[in-house]
Amino acid sequence: MTVVLKVGGSVLTRKSEPETVDEAALGTVAEAVAGALAGDSPAAPAAPAVGDLVLVHGGGSFGHHHADRHGVTRTAGLHDASAITAIHAAMTDLNATVVDALQGAGVPALPVAPFAAATRGADGTLALATAPVETMLEEDFVPVLHGDVVAHAGEGATILSGDELVVALARALGADRVGLCSGVPGVLDEDGDVVDQVGSFDAVAGALGGSDATDVTGGMAGKVRTLLDLEAPANVFGLEALGAFLAGGNPGTSIRRDR
Amino acid sequence: MTVVLKVGGSVLTRKSEPETVDEAALGTVAEAVAGALAGDSPAAPAAPAVGDLVLVHGGGSFGHHHADRHGVTRTAGLHDASAITAIHAAMTDLNATVVDALQGAGVPALPVAPFAAATRGADGTLALATAPVETMLEEDFVPVLHGDVVAHAGEGATILSGDELVVALARALGADRVGLCSGVPGVLDEDGDVVDQVGSFDAVAGALGGSDATDVTGGMAGKVRTLLDLEAPANVFGLEALGAFLAGGNPGTSIRRDR
After folding, report:
1. Is the separation of the CB atoms in A241 and A252 below 8 Å?
2. Contact criterion met (CB < 8 Å) for A81 and B156
3. If you placed Cys at A9, which of A58, A77, A247, B81 could pair as Cys (CB 3.0 to 4.6 Å)?
4. Pairing of strands B109-111, B148-152
5. Confidence label for B42 from pLDDT (cuts 50, 70 and 90)
6. Quick count: other Cβ atoms within 10 Å of Cβ A204?
7. Could you give the C-alpha distances from B216 to B71, B85, B147, B161, B172, in angstroms and in order?
8. Which residues of A touch B157 (CB under 8 A)?
9. Distance CA B200, CA B258 (A)
10. DSSP H helices in chain B
11. Is 0.80 topped by the overall pTM?
12. Does A120 sit within 8 Å of B116, measured CB to CB?
């Protein structure tokens, strides 16, 4: 059982305050992951172990403010080495804090900086080297990747979103399950209620017309589109449901293309 | 013209004092690299531009003390995620300082953490993903890699030396020249004099009997062996000759297998 879990930047940080970690939320994530790996999830004590777990986290207030200031997106790049390095450093700082919290809870987490492993072609296609992550999993570690910058042919460097990493990892590793722990409890319909299942984009297109205006890495509409393209079933849920997801449940919104 | 240049940890740091950068030496390196990229090397004003340049630096006092404390080498690994992360963090701290100094001198340097891009098989063979470095070069950046830890099948994580990175990069990029800027002015014979040229290991085996006892990543004997296996000609020289090497000269010891 291979699980790719992304914890959104909006869960781990306070987006309104630059580079501020939400320590309570981070602690909740660390405890949930540690509990699932130990097989003692209160939500499902007899659930099978998670097995191989890869974590990805977004940038939240660490990455987005830098990206906004420099006008860099996933398609519009930068050639300013200092600015690129500053965005990368903000993300690795957050990653170090996340990895430290996980290790403190007993999770054998290791930091993985995608800037060193990923590249984008001139057409925007992402290539991610996953051999290091695969070896870490075989050795019973929990690799922790993060939204980052990426060298981009013809553009210098652009933004690499956590959502893109989730897709690349799920495909390369043949993930059995994908989870997106988000700032909202799932995909919401026009009334603000959680949609149980999404099997096609059209079914929720109306409710997902807009994305978070300040989020250069894509809002819910983009997440749903990319998750529908995966072989693996995916769930979008809030922090309160992370334990249930890791225990094998299907909280929030289940996303899998109708077939 | 693609050049792979390693600056030894013993040049950049004070090995006797843990995690102390030799700021003067680092400044000298940064100015020499900046001058070579600008084509204004005083040593050879009309020399062709360096073209694509990849930098690698060793750990010096940043990496070795951690490695020694945990008993980890290139073959004997660790499964302790906190210890692995501490070694990695010490190396990325040094890398950030090196990248910052280079940028300050006008070099478009970018940090590349090999832990995210490399893996070792059970037989110790290193695989390094170099696509990100190649894209950075195409975009006129100067990638700066560093000695690091690496996920190792069956061993957890082991040490990845700067010398190993030089070999992997030179091969993958088809480098035209390789330089090792070292704490000594070249390969020394039994009398302590610099050997001009080395074409086989046997010719210098007597003088290279021992390696630095405290250096888990291999001393001069290991460097000579690996450089002899490269297609590209290599030079080992001291900091005072870095400008001359970057200007196209062959300072210190030239190493290329007799053929």
Report:
1. yes
2. no
3. A58
4. unpaired
5. low
6. 22
7. 9, 18, 11, 9, 25
8. 110, 139
9. 6
10. 9-12, 23-38, 60-70, 81-104, 131-138, 162-173, 220-228, 242-246
11. yes
12. no
Give the tokens for residue A193: 């209620």
* Cα end-to-end distance, chain A, whole Å: 22
**A135 to chain B: which residues are within 8 Å by CB?**
119-120, 151-153
B234 min Cα distance to partner chain A (Å) = 25
Query: In the structure encoding, which two tokens stand for residue A115, read together?
Result: 């800037």
pLDDT digits 0-9 by tens, A98-132: 999 999 999 999 999 999 999 999 999 999 999 99
Q: Of the given ranges (A70-79, A92-101, B123-132), which has the lowest mean pLDDT?
A: A70-79
Tell me the mean pLDDT in the region A236-247. Answer: 97
Q: What is the CATH number of domain A6-255?
A: 3.40.1160.10
SS3 A226: helix
pLDDT at B218 over 70: no
Whether the predicted pLDDT of A168 surpasses 80? yes
CB B12, CB B25: distance < 8 Å: yes
